[in-house]
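USER: Study each token:
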Amino acid sequence: MKKIVYCMTAVAFLLAFGLVQALNVSAVASQSSCPSWETQYEQLRTPPVGNKVITARHRGAFDGFLPENSMGAFVKAFQNCASAVETDVRKTADGQLVLFHDINIGKMLEPTYDPETNTGPNQRLSEITYAELSRKHLLRPNRQETHYVVPTVNELINYVIDNDVNSLIHLEIKDPTAILEVARLLRDHHQVNPNAHILKRVVIKFNMGEYPTPAQWKAALEKEGIVADYTLMPVIAPVTAQRINVGSEIPNPEELELTTNASRAVAHWGKAPMELAPIIEVVVKDSSEFLYTEPRTHSSFGNYAAPTKLSLDNVKKGTVAEFVALTHFYRKNLGAFVPVPDYGLFTKGPRAGFTVPNTFGDHTPIAVTDAFFNNDSSCCYAVEDRRYSTEIASEAHDWRINLDWQHSIGANILTADDTDSIEMYSQQHGYLNSVARPNPQPASKEMNSVLKLLAEGHSVPDSALVKIKGWNGASASTWGGQVCLWSDPGYYLWTIACSIERGGYSPVLEIHTVGKGKMLIRDPQSLQCLTADPAVSEVISWKDDCNHENAHWTRTPAHRFLDSNGREINFQWDDRYSYGYPFAYNFLSRGDTSTWSQWLLEPFDVDSNDPYK
């Protein structure tokens, strides 16, 4: 009996810290069944043929239990046979090289930080010592703590060597001062254990503006006394190109006459040996800078324009299109990032139907299915917010999530949070590198990946069934526990305990995003919508006209619903009773800061046709 009690206690402890999930990782796949790292390296250094796609798992195989950029997420990706794992390198205040995506730590390390209101502790990682950082635990998407701490670069490299990991590692260096420090660390590992071939297994990914040519990279190594043969991935974005263009003159390669420094920089990296630079990543968002394109209207990802050819005579000089063409001219792998909205990844939902804050432009709220966290931990932005027109790229669109468009420009090294959907789609269309990834697996339904929906031919949903709970989900015994908004077709919105017998009424409501930052709240039975009367504050009605502006609501970062006149849905003790429980008719108020006007959206998942499934 004592042994049974001890075992049960141990399991409870492991569950509390998320270790059971880490232990279960070994059940996903045996690493021995994965293509070897030597195979992955050969596929990378071989000039691409047919633009066969290889992926890199961004931030590891994180999920609802394993935090992003945690050792657990990396190990799971390795055992899932990821061709490569891409992670981010930053420096702490005392110079420790760590793996962390964001500039600030609130989203991933501070349970009391609220990304929507951007309130609570949210220090910059660069202002924290490693000792301070290691006392904080990484958070799951539901903001629960795990046992994982922010790993160091050294910890990951040691794991790769000690466990003979088959996946390659792409280290994206976010802090320019860390580039040579990472190079030195890898050199040191190579000197201690040359048979591990760590310089082939780890790709250093850096902003091309730091070292515009291989000669400048070599000179920087020589200055630091570093002698080693690295595997590199220079990245060029429009802002990088602008920086290179105003820098020191870069000579033309012998075989080409190029008009800008940036294009010459790409050419020099293109000429570099495949062993040094097998990949050039170009941040290109559409086909605007190609001279001749063809409209494509049958993609499940949406319409786009495909270049008629990817040669240098089909591009505007000095633009991202020329960078793409140069990469192909020199037969290098073209890298690209595929952005997948990450606000809803691995959350319990709702998966759609509501808006979240927008930190860009006029701050019009954005649909959750379009939402990305900012790298300062705050919520949120949409890719359309980050299009900037320059002489390098007009960025009239952002088509990067469109895998058909990515294939049309020849992008074949694709980094994303959802590499599973990229691999499945590429396999179905005949251009997955099956040597690097022979047995792709579909993304889990729990991921809530918009990319998965589009790749499988679904529309991105704009609605969800929910219970809308008062006090932001808190409860009160005098009210019978948690309270919900309830339908009453043709009459008024009311609030009562969520658990009462329904008697023809329902707390299950339908939320919809309707554009321009607005939402509607609808009774799925009567199809009536919650509607405010500009001249009335005492009650809120259920009415038939869901298209009227009075039926459209704005959700605030503090989880309040405002009508078109800026009044929030509220309630208070009303000394009324129904079914033996107190209830209140909802009213509209202004400027309330209490929890009585805060509403939690709790998913009510009964739809067997949910496309995420």
